[in-house]
Amino acid sequence: MKIKVLIADDHQLFREGLINLLSQSQEINLVSHADNGKDAYEKAIIYSPDVILMDISMPVMGGEEATGLVKKQMPDVKVIALTMHSDKHYIKSMLEAGVDGYLFKNCTYNQLIDAIKTVSSGKKYLSGDITETLINDYLNKETEKESNQSELTERELDVLKLYAEGKTTREISDTLFVSIKTVGTHRQHIMEKLDIKTTVEMIKYALKKGIITLD
Description:
Low-confidence stretches: none
Number of strands: 6
CATH architecture of the largest domain: 3-Layer(aba) Sandwich
Strand order of the largest sheet: 2-1-3-4-5-6
Number of helices: 10
Distance between the termini: 58 Å
Structural class: alpha/beta
CATH topology of the largest domain: Rossmann fold
CATH class of the largest domain: Alpha Beta
Helix content: 55-70%
Order of helices and strands: EHEHEHEHEHEHHHHH
Number of domains: 2
Mean pLDDT: 88
CATH superfamily of the largest domain: Response regulator
């Protein structure tokens, strides 16, 4: 059975090129195309495609919002972001919106077909360039956290350790002979420097860095 595909892209020349290419495939059934996210969403409801090739920057409604709507109303429809945007923020925003694949427009025809077949089978597809971008971003964040740890003051390290050991703010206040407000300020600085949001993350970080142990 052929894979039903819908194309959403506001650049007419690129869109027509895709239409011509995919129309030649024996594995693809091109059901429709759209020049903006709103039109893509509405046509997805009408034609029930298996896969949508979704650009990000489009008029009326962008690809991120359109993807969110599609995934909310038609969770079985697979969406591949097909774009020139290589910035990590675009990649993350589209992944958070629910895309099943992310591919650059300078990909090859075989890569595109492979991506369509992969997501239609229920798997995720990220090109090598996308994976490298995400890995580098993760590694950079880890390096930044390590750098930020070295910037923690001695008192902040004390507070981090005590929180990670399960002490309450009041107990830390009594242990360090400082006010509850001061403990709260140290806690805020720790979380900002380490880019963490909760006490659980603080405990995980302290365990990972050997600040506390499970002994």
